[in-house]
Specification:
By secondary structure, this protein is of the alpha+beta class. About 30% of the residues lie in helices and about 30% in strands. The protein folds into two domains: about 5-105 and about 185-244, Alpha-Beta Plaits; about 115-180, Double Stranded RNA Binding Domain. The chain has six helices and eleven strands. It starts with 5 loop residues before the first strand and ends with a helix.
Length: about 240
């Protein structure tokens, strides 16, 4: 199989309100720091940040040798159990965030008909709602046949954001096509890895017990803070050993 060296990473807060958004931010930070350790290029494409610093949605691009093979098992719903900083009575909350790892493919592999696209432009806003750009450089694309909506606003030019948005769209269409071929397409997957409900989980981050459990391979890992700080090697190696 050809090595895939570019991916789209999409992280969305699920069940749990503000705490889910904060956890989504923790996952963004984890993948960003792991990318730095690996020498990969991590690019922010679009995001919707909350007032508490978490993310309702985050879309990025990671480029590096073998990045898809390293991170493909991260797709799914991640669940966290901890006492939120906003919790006054010390109760443990359960929240979720979903992760999608999508391979970026060449334009020739996924043909997109321009007539199927509805493209709109807007001004790109900065953190906290600042208007840092008076020119309409942010791009939003609706793919009418599937209803998929993608956007990019972090590049400085309209053209660059359009190209980034098309990369995301191709990645999503490729994933749908691939899963159709494998006969595994579900309504949830078409909507990008599920509803984010607490029951749909691949991994649980249990802070009170300082334990991460991956439910697919039945393995447990400790030192959550270190892993969330980018030390993903133990989990990634466990999956590599499972595939051997």
């Amino acid at each position: 199989m050809e090595t895939i060296n570019k991916i789209v990473i999409e992280i969305r807060a699920g069940a749990g309100g503000d705490e889910a958004a904060i956890f989504a931010g923790d996952l963004v930070n984890m993948y960003q720091k792991y990318s730095q350790k690996k020498g990969w290029k991590f690019t922010v494409l679009d995001f919707n940040k909350t007032s508490l610093g978490g993310y309702k949605t985050f879309i990025g691009k990671i480029e590096g040798q073998g990045v898809y093979d390293e991170l493909k098992q991260e797709s799914g719903v991640h669940r966290v159990q901890r006492i939120p900083k906003t919790e006054k009575s010390g109760r443990i909350h359960t929240s979720t965030a979903s992760v999608a790892i999508l391979p970026i493919v060449e334009p020739k592999e996924i043909q997109i008909n321009e007539n199927d696209l509805e493209i709109t432009f807007s001004r790109a806003g900065g953190p906290g709602g600042q208007n840092v750009n008076k020119v309409e450089t942010a791009v939003r694309i609706l793919h009418k046949p599937t209803g998929i909506v993608v956007s990019s606003r972090e590049e400085r030019s309209q053209h660059a954001n359009r190209e980034r948005a098309l990369e995301i769209l191709r990645a999503k269409l490729y994933e749908i096509q691939r899963e159709e071929q494998e006969g595994k397409l579900t309504a949830e997957r078409r909507a990008q890895i599920g509803s984010g409900e607490r029951s749909e989980k691949i991994r649980t981050y249990n802070f009170p017990e300082d334990r991460i459990t991956d439910h697919r391979i039945g393995k447990k890992f400790h030192n959550i803070e270190k892993i969330l700080d980018g030390d993903l090697e133990p989990i990634i190696e466990a999956f590599k050993n499972q595939r051997k």
